[in-house]
Structure formats: structure tokens, C-alpha cells
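Question thread 4412

I'm putting together a teaching handout and wanted feedback from people who do this every day. The idea is simple: show students a protein as raw sequence, then show them the C-alpha cells that encode its fold, then repeat with a second protein so they can compare. Below is the first pair exactly as I plan to print it.
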Amino acid sequence: MPQPYPRKLNLWKRGLGTVPESVWEETELETLVLADNGLTEVSERIGGLKRLRMLDLGHNQLTAVPEAIGELEGLTDFLYLHDNHLSSLPPSIGRLTKLRYLNLSENDFSELPEAVTRMAGLIELRIDGNQIAVLPDSIGRLERLRELHLRNNKMASLPESIGQLKELQQIDLRGNPLVVLPDGLAGLPRLAKLDLRWVDSLEPPAWLLTLEARGCAVYL
């Protein structure tokens, strides 16, 4: 009997340096883990892995993501790009509209790439530990978002459009130099956790008491 194609390939922490060309031949893969391998680039051939549902490129040395990542339109579960040296993403990544979890933490972003706000299926977005000073107004497009993690960035404020995230349950703003919060946060019906620890620059708005009264955990 012919051997079944592998659906999962875990190459975590193998010291690869570069991705073996044979990986791109595994077109039936649904899970590919390439984390912690000292990778500095990923081939455009990754676009051929049409069945991928989860891709882990975290803990590498990447300064760019291939344009072909936008061809992985079946990517639904997780995309890990954290702990690299990324400062931008290709516009094509906005085509990953079925993706539910994206981790961009611990990179070199000074702004959230606009393409991310076109990823309408996102439920959880992590961009901790970057240099982001301003979120785009288009963040309001992510209407399915439940968790937004922004810890240790450079934000003094948030856009009013954050009030459009009606499914948002958690927002982590720890370690940002915030001086003001948008009133729209107070109207988010599902908000259950607002984390403002290590924020010494903010005069807490009166409506935080209203949030707490309705059951939202506010951490100061």
C-alpha cells in the first residue's frame, strides 16, 4: 500500500539555518512548524502548500515574509511570526481572511501593517513588544476579534474605531505610555478584561468604574 502523505511536519529547533527544499514538496501538509531554526528567509515556494492550516515561523531571524504567503488562503488556525526582525508584511497577507490567530509579537514594527486589518477572520491578534505608536483607524474592520494584545508598545492613545470591535473580550495595554483612552471602550458589550498595568501616564477615566460595575475586570 502506498504511504499516506504526512499532514504534520514538526522541525522545531533543528538548527536548520535554511528550509530544506524537500519541505516544499510536501503539498499535503496541514501543519508546518519551522520555529527556532535561525532562518533568515523563507522561499516563495511556500505558496504551494495550499492545505496548510497552521504555520509556525516564530523564534527565527526573518526580516521579511514572502509575498507568496498570501497564496495560503486555507490558513485557518494559527500563524506564528513572533520573535523575528520583521518591520513590514507583504500586502498579500491581507488575503488570509480565514485565519483566526496571528502572532506578530517581539518584532520591529513601528506601525501595524494595514493588510492585517483586512484579515477579517481574526479572533486573536498579538503584537506585544514592538515599537507601535499608533493603530490605524482600520483596526475597526476586525469585527470578529475577541483578544487584542498590545503590551509594551509606544502608544499614547487608541483610535476611536476600537469601539467597533463588538466581539472584543480582552485588551492588554500594559506598558504603553497612554495618556487617553477612547470612550468607545466603555461601550464594548463583551469586554471582560482591560489590562492597564504599568501605565503610569494615564489619568483613569470615570467610565472605568462603569465597566467594573458590569463585571469587566480592570487592572491598573
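The second pair follows. I'd like the answer to focus on this one:
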Amino acid sequence: MSSARPQILLAFSPRVYEGYVEPTALTRLEQFADWDYFPCEGGGIYDTNSDPAAAAALKEKLAPYDGIIICHGAPTLTADVLDGAPNLRIIGEMEGDRFASRIDLDAAWDRNIRTVDVTNGSSYPVSEWALALILVSLRSGGYNFQQILAGKAKELRNEKVPMGGRLTGKRVGLIGGGHMARRLIKFLRPFETEIWVYDPYLPREMAEALDFTQTSLDNVLSKCDVVVCLVPLTPGTKGMLGEREFGLLKPGAVFVNVSRGPVVDSQALINRLKKGDIVAGLDVFDPEPIPADSEIIKLPNVFLSPHIGWATGDPIRPFFDLVVDEFKRFFDGHEPWYELTPRSRANRTGQPAV
């Protein structure tokens, strides 16, 4: 039987503990649960700790715990490991962008264990940068900066710059409707924009709830003034935007990519940009880092940043704080906000929507 107060195990590397576990968040956890720490090393951002000894040690320790919070260093919570956790009710993954490589989701769901991740800890800052890239691109920031570097700042004052314009009242199309998109929708509201979203994985009722138009990819590309790419990189999204798709953008459109470079066929984007009738704001590119001799760098209708949308400069990243929020909701008898489900797994792995 579980104790009256939830028992929570933290299982990740000391580096994660130092970089993610904010003391105030730990204090909040202590207000409703008791916790212990299981230090473990192995694996990295994109893979998991494959040491059988670490998995066995974690299994031996899990029996009394109602919840576990995992991150880099933790072995995968396989069916065998979960067999050692009869009281476990919820698993929280702090680096959800890695597609739950540390959780055997089917094994957890078969045992009625809830699973959450907080990839939005990095997604939310990217949403801010997406808004910045929209604004900079609408005012042809890349072109203006290149003109300043060329010593032509004085001439700019009276020049009609390409694609100069306001965001207010524009139609903004979002490719992807996940954490980044939903936060960006909030940021766009004060600009009185019309928002269209393409995402086959979204529940249909979300469009009404968040007041956007759910539509096709071709509609987003061909009928929006601003198009923002926000999808995860999966087998289904790799190369999804190519010559045909960029050919649909209307003259004067702005294209922003803050997702992943390989979602876009880079040469196809360059070819469209060389026509000079659209502007792009790119935080990601394929390949990265951008080669010094790439055509994209010299194009006047592009603003580039080196995949820094997630970087806030904060000494401690917000993942642990968010997962404590999730555990508080769960143990208070509420529904988690960021639950991993068959639908979210299908989205992240490029499988058909369920």
C-alpha cells in the first residue's frame, strides 16, 4: 500500500540534478510528497542508459514509490523494471523532446501507470523567438542589417524595403499545433491576427476551444501572410516542405522555421527565396551549423539565428518545475496537462493519427 503522502523517486545524473532541480521547485514538491534521489549515469540526450546493472539497481529500489521523475542517466523503464514497482502510479520525463526513449510506454500503460513529459520546458521559449522572427521578417530585418553592414544606413531611411509590413491583422498559418504553437497563439492574440493551423493529430474540438481555423497544409501555405513551421522532426515530417510546398507561398509571404532544419528541403527553400518575393526567418537549417559558403547566408531576404530559440540564459532550466506542477495536479486528483498518450506518440513518431 502507498503511504498517505506520495513517495517520489528522482532518477537522473548529478549533472541534471545541478542544472534542472531548482530549490524552490523541490520545496514545492516537499509540500505534498516525500522524495529520494537515485543518482545514475549513462546515455545522453538522444539515447538511454543501457547498463543492465543500473536497470537492476533501479528495479530493486522502486517498490515503495508512487511516482518517479527521470531524465538523462536513467535506464529505460522497461516491463521488467516496472515489475519491481507495484505502487507506481505516474512517470514524469523531463526531456520529453527525446520521444520517451526512457519509458516503455506500452508497459507503463498496461500497468495503468500515467506518463507525462515536459518537452514544453524548451518549447515555450522557442515560441517567443518565433514571434520575434515573424516581426523581424515582416520588417525585412535581414535586409536592413545587411545594408547597415554595407555602410548604407542613411539610404535606408527613405528606401521602400522589401516586404515591410505590420503583423496586426495578418493571417498567420501554423504548421503544427503542439506546445510551441499553442503558446504562440497566445502571443499572437494582441496583434488581432487570424490564425489557421494544420495538424492532423489535433483533437477537432481544440479549434473551437482556442479559436483558430483548422485546415489543410496547402491552405496554410497558399493563403496565409505568415507561415510558421512548428512540427517535430519525425519520419513523417522529414522533408515535408519542398519545391511544391514553397511554390504555394504567395508573393509577399513570410516563412518562419523554428522546428528542425530537416523538415525543410533546404535547396527548395533557397530556390524560392532567390526569386526575391518572400522573406524567411530561420532559427534552424539543414545542415547545422550552416556552412560558411551556403547561399542562404548571403540572401538579402533572410534573417538567420543559430538554433538558439530555446536558449534563455537562465541558470536552471524549467523542466523540473513543470514536472512538479504535473505531479501536484495528479496527486491532487486532477488530470495532467502534458500526458503522453497513443495520439501524442503517433505524432512524435510519424505514425498515422489515432
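Top answer:
Good format. For the second protein you could add a caption like this: Residues 120-138 form the longest helix (19 residues). Residues 170 and 241 are 22 Å apart (CA to CA).
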